[in-house]
Amino acid sequence: PKQQEFPDPDGSPDIDEETFEEEVDDGSPQKTHSNIVFVGHVDSGKSTTCGRILVDKGVVEKRAIGRVKQDEDAQGGEEFIYAQALDELEEERRRSKTFECGHSMFETETKLWNVIDAPGHRQFVPHMIGGTSQAEVAVLIISARKGEFETGFEKDGQTREHIVLTKTLGVTHLIVAINKMDDETVHWDQGRYTEIKDKLSPFLKQSGWRPADVRWLPISGLKGENVLHRTDKSPWYNGPCLIEVLESLTPPERMVNAPPIFTIQEKYKESGDSNILGKLEVGTIKAGDEMLLMPINKQVKVKAVKKGNRTIEMAQPGDQVTITLTGIDEQEISRGYVLCSRTNPIHATNLIEAQFMIMECKSVMTKGYEAVLHVHAATAECIMTQISAVLDKQGKVAQKNPDFVKQGQTIICRFKTDIPICVEPFKVLQPCGRFVIRDEGRTIGIGKIIGISVKGDTKA
Ligand code: GDP
């Protein structure tokens, strides 16, 4: 069969051979490593807020940013600076020609935060799907400015889609930061904050977010208020600032003893070596490990593991790391492939059975429906080959073998993909068992894999 190339949304060029200095792990006590993603409607202030953290934490120099932008007035003054912090990082990434996660990392007291997909200009949801599936924590930025919250939350706004995606893609904590509280239409008004919270809450619940896993706070990303420091402008809010919220979150339980599963986001060649960047979902990986690359069934060996520019001894579950491989040419690797154990490999299949929730569908959906399936970082064309049931609110079968299904329904169905994808049933391995179906640039629905087939029959 023809070797499939997964699309590369970055258009990332291959890496020139270049030598660079390596920092070696100094053995100092390790902080818990967490991945964080900023989501929200366009212009809600994701770049500004994230930039503010990176600048105030000293990760990116404000001066360096100012250099890029000398005609500040023409472009809107200070407000431009923080959003620009991310451009600066992107530039740096390009210049340094490594897929640097180190440079978009910041620290809190006991945790090390890796900002996934920091460059804020890609409003491209498929990309967000890859990024969000790597994150344990999502900060949903909502603009409180008059009219902006409303636009973002309308049917065509991105707020609803982002809420649903964070839940489906396995984010464990959601922080809803109601931003632009300093705006002249808002003036740190508690009423506006409460109004937004009251409107969003039911939708969050409906999307599967338990109130206990959601934190709320009012911020001004631009002024840095309630971001790194508490502000006195919201006496009605006594809670922690954003950084304090982050520090207080309990990290998700990590499956250290499971056979390793590493999902690949990017690949590049450096000094003749093949490198992969992605997330270790479960298990551990260290230099010298003999592993398997799926779905191509290729035996490879781990030469080195790096976090940012630092060589580390062993990658832990949840880590976003770069792995140098031997035994394979970089050309053979694609985004969405999985590095796993030889004795306990992940399944590769092109037929899955799923519980699927139809979120958006103009008319009805029937057998033969074609769309694009996204699971961890993998993407494949797919066709719905069977619809076996419609479920009721309790998850019981309400109708068997329907001729058609429609928006709002949860169904049991099968999808066949054009290429093999690496998946597991949701109950076995959540990160590789939940997926999103998209069509013509819109999220159609979300699903959980309940069975996979290796030879045509699906088995749970
Ligand atoms: P993104 O598309 O979500 O990344 O949004 P940006 O960070 O690029 O911000 C969009 C616009 O909102 C810019 O003009 C920012 O200056 C402005 N903005 C962002 N955060 C705030 C804030 O806290 N207060 C005010 N007043 N404006 C903000």
UniProtKB/TrEMBL annotation:
Family listed: Belongs to the TRAFAC class translation factor GTPase superfamily. Classic translation factor GTPase family. EF-Tu/EF-1A subfamily.
Protein name: Eukaryotic peptide chain release factor GTP-binding subunit ERF3A
Sequence segments annotated as region (Disordered): 1-33
Compositionally skewed regions (Acidic residues) per UniProt: 7-26
Claim: GTP-binding is one of the keywords in the record: yes
Record flagged with keyword Cell membrane: no
Alphabetized UniProt keyword annotations: GTP-binding, Nucleotide-binding
Tr-type G domain: residues covered: 31-256
